[in-house]
Amino acid sequence: MCEPGIIRKLDEEVVNRIAAGEIVQRPANALKELIENSLDAHSNNIIITVKAGGLKYLQIQDNGTGIRSDNLDIVCERFTTSKLKQYEDLQAISTYGFRGEALASISHIAHLTILTKTANEKCAYKASYENGKLKGPIKPCAGNNGTQITVEDLFYNVIARKRALRSPNEEYTHIMEVVGGYAIHNSHVGFTLKKFGENTDIKTPIKSSVIDNVRIIHGNTIARELLEIEYCDPKLHLKLNGYITNVNYSHKKGAMLLFINHRLVDSISIRKAVDSVYATYLPKNAHSFVYLSIELDPKNVDVNVHPTKHEVQFLYEEQIIEKIKNTIEKKLLSCNSSRVMYTQA
Ligand code: ADP
Ligand code: MG
């Protein structure tokens, strides 16, 4: 007969590392959190530098508010945040961050360094972190207003994850998707993405437009076929904006960029709904490019269902999806008929 195992409490460090691995599953997840922090800090220029798909080195430089030097001692501890004070605030949260877990998580599975300067402080400060805590003293140094965060050797202590993520190129593709998505959705913010020591892969100017950024990131073949969509339903507290390719455009690999309340997310049901509308117009196995920004009453959205915040749940899903389908269908139809009329004229 087997003896029952003895139940022991796990070391805090082990618990934190496991939790961190759930929040950060690959370099692109870490980068998404860091970009969201930069946007929360009102940056309008964000520069990202990557080595080996972000596994070796991932740096993000912004020109936002910076972090106060007297906060640098606790900034990487779990559940330290400047954004959420009480649980009820979650209902009306307008920042990306709210749970103070991103920096903490990253510091448990990588070497993290922060260089930051607020407008009020005379110089910048630099600090390194390990397992949520400061590693060594906070050092005054030269630097611009804003924050630079450097993440090195991601997953150095999570061997299984490190083994699973063997292709830096694949990781870089995910990073391009995240940067491209946020650059299109935040076209007023300039984004730069480059591999260390190489030419830039993405560079969007400050105060650009959505269409210009689609052109920069996805090329003119898509940008010149875009239709703008807009819809508002006060009863459902739904606001829908976006750009979708017309029926002239089709590609064997489609793309959908979906933002719900400004978060880059995925929704299989919305994706299927969009595909079903296009299926009537496009050849078999051909797809569209669709960028949708959906704004819902924060009360109706639960952003806390998934550790990476990649999936969100929202109320009235069926009705909302119906409205999305109708809006896209109407737009495609109107443009299809105007094209016919144009050819006949
Ligand atoms: P959250 O975003 O949920 O608050 P994070 O761990 O991502 O948690 O960040 C912790 C805190 O660090 C933030 O609340 C913010 O005050 C500060 N912070 C992080 N990144 C930046 C940044 N790029 N610029 C200014 N402040 C930042
Ligand atoms: Mg955050």
TrEMBL record:
Belongs to the DNA mismatch repair MutL/HexB family. Transmembrane segments: none annotated. Residues 214-333 form the DNA mismatch repair protein S5 domain. The chain holds residues 1 to 345 of 723 of the full protein. One of its GO terms (molecular function) is ATP-dependent DNA damage sensor activity. This is (African queen) hypothetical protein. GO terms for biological process: mismatch repair. The keyword DNA damage applies. It comes from the Eukaryota. One of its GO terms (cellular component) is MutLalpha complex. Keywords: DNA damage, DNA repair, Nucleus. It comes from Danaus chrysippus (African queen).
